[in-house]
Amino acid sequence: MLLLPFGIASAIRDFLPSSCGPPTASNNLFVKTPSMLLQLICGFLILIRGERVSGAITFNTSAGIYNSSQTPSSFPWNTYNYCNAPHVNADHYSLPVNATKGSELVYMNVMMRHHKRTPDNLYPNENELNPSAGWDCSDFIQENYGGGTARVFHEVTIPSWHPFLSQIWNGTCDAGQLTAGGLADAVQHGKDFWALYHTKLGFLKSVNTKDILMRTSTEDRTQQVAGGLLFGMDHTTAGKSFPLVTQPSGIDSLPPDYSCSKANNIRNAYQSVPAWTDHLEENADLKARLDATLGTAGLDAWSSWYDHFFDTFTSRTCAGHPLPCNSTGACVSQADTNQVFAIGDFEYNYIWNAAQNSTTYTQLTFGVMFAELAMNFKLFQSGGETFKLRFYVGHDGSMIRLASGLGFGKVAPLRWPALGSEVVMEVWKTSKGEHFVRVLHEGTPVQTLEWVGIDEFVALLQSNVPDNLFEQCNSS
Ligand SMILES: *[C@@H]1O[C@H](CO)[C@@H](O)[C@H](O)[C@H]1NC(C)=O
Ligand SMILES: *[C@@H]1O[C@H](CO)[C@@H](O)[C@H](O)[C@H]1NC(C)=O
Ligand SMILES: *[C@@H]1O[C@H](CO)[C@@H](O)[C@H](O)[C@H]1NC(C)=O
Ligand SMILES: *[C@@H]1O[C@H](CO)[C@@H](O)[C@H](O)[C@H]1NC(C)=O
Ligand SMILES: *[C@@H]1O[C@H](CO)[C@@H](O)[C@H](O)[C@H]1NC(C)=O
Ligand SMILES: *[C@@H]1O[C@H](CO)[C@@H](O)[C@H](O)[C@H]1NC(C)=O
């Protein structure tokens, strides 16, 4: 495995000849062609990118924070932080370079991932792989009551006598539950958003249901994050009602959750070729070590990809928990954890962005959401939009598809969308009355979408909506 510090990796990337092109079978360190030097440089770069070189697969184990919501001040503010992605904020915001005098912000859509949570996946013997106190979720109240009735809330209890105790940690948390730290991050996210779009730019005047539409998935964690955001924007919202728009879970376009067998078949096919299977084979030693410590050997969900290991490690490290240690005292090592993090980035980029046919997969599975976004911007163009802001709180699956469809993956490989990952789509009106869209990803303007005509942006969204989506999804 090649371990390169971030600075060196990016320095080498800057040497990349533009003629490197996509990796091919001959694009390795040992070809004997006249353009050997170029091949060598390209091969080295591919090595850093985490692609295949002479049968060895390595990963870009580069910069990233995975153990705290606070990025240390010694790192750039917009460093990838899996625990709490950078987001738009007044200190690091600049007006669009192309905005001429008299241009004003007139409309926006935002999509983000929820904040920190407990692991979504459980080891077969989950209990022993946690500190004895387990997970604490007693520090904020889980309310969920029928309007006009008693304000009931629920508390998770995990009785010590429960015969199935081995399958869950101790404490007061369910799987996939937003933690108090995640709620605090959501509040700060809302505060930063408001400091920019209200205080600095004066675009949003107040938090009200006429100007702001909040849409979430059906999960408690996205809804609680929406509440945290609103509270961060305006503390007087505490205890007040605010509607969240959701779709039925079976057809929800946001996570997304509608079924599409054609998409599944396409993905299965590109996860059956060497471009995918090689990385599983090459990391067999790592997998064997993890299985031995965590009791996951022979389980499909843990062997077809590294998703579950990634989730169970990051959820722990982001919450300040130790890496899992089993009852014989053996722990997952930091080095193996770093490798899992790098593989996670590789897998997300491959599945949703880089694989042959991944574009089709992304479009089939997120086409309904792209259609909804296109409708929003067209409604705005037609003068029929009543909201100033439509704010979506979804999941990593929402963010990776949006990032891929908007073409972010053509600029640089996509990484696993961090907790709180954010895409902001701003519409600006020039003094001549023209509308331009500017997109920001994790608080930073996206190179290719810094100033595009609204028609062009709508066309980009619509280009991700397959024809006859329902029929296609149900064909083979
Ligand atoms: C490796 O990671 C760094 C830090 O995230 C990133 O800037 C760089 O583009 C990556 N390099 C490649 C070739 O993917
Ligand atoms: C968290 O990660 C950073 C960056 O990798 C590292 O420098 C730091 O020591 C880690 N902190 C803890 C408490 O593990
Ligand atoms: C934005 O400004 C740059 C630099 O002035 C210019 O080259 C570019 O054409 C402008 N883009 C648009 C869409 O107006
Ligand atoms: C969790 O609690 C049970 C019951 O009190 C205890 O037997 C078990 O050892 C605890 N788990 C850990 C990892 O300490
Ligand atoms: C991509 O789709 C085409 C057309 O269906 C198919 O021939 C090809 O094998 C697919 N590629 C992968 C890697 O699955
Ligand atoms: C704990 O992990 C070690 C090292 O991977 C392994 O040898 C041992 O069998 C594991 N113990 C249990 C109880 O899973």
UniProtKB/TrEMBL annotation:
One of its GO terms (molecular function) is phosphatase activity. CDD domains: HP_HAP_like. Pfam families: His_Phos_2. Gene3D superfamilies: Phosphoglycerate mutase-like. PANTHER family: ACID PHOSPHATASE, PUTATIVE (AFU_ORTHOLOGUE AFUA_3G14570)-RELATED, ACID PHOSPHATASE-RELATED. Belongs to the histidine acid phosphatase family. This is Phosphoglycerate mutase-like protein.
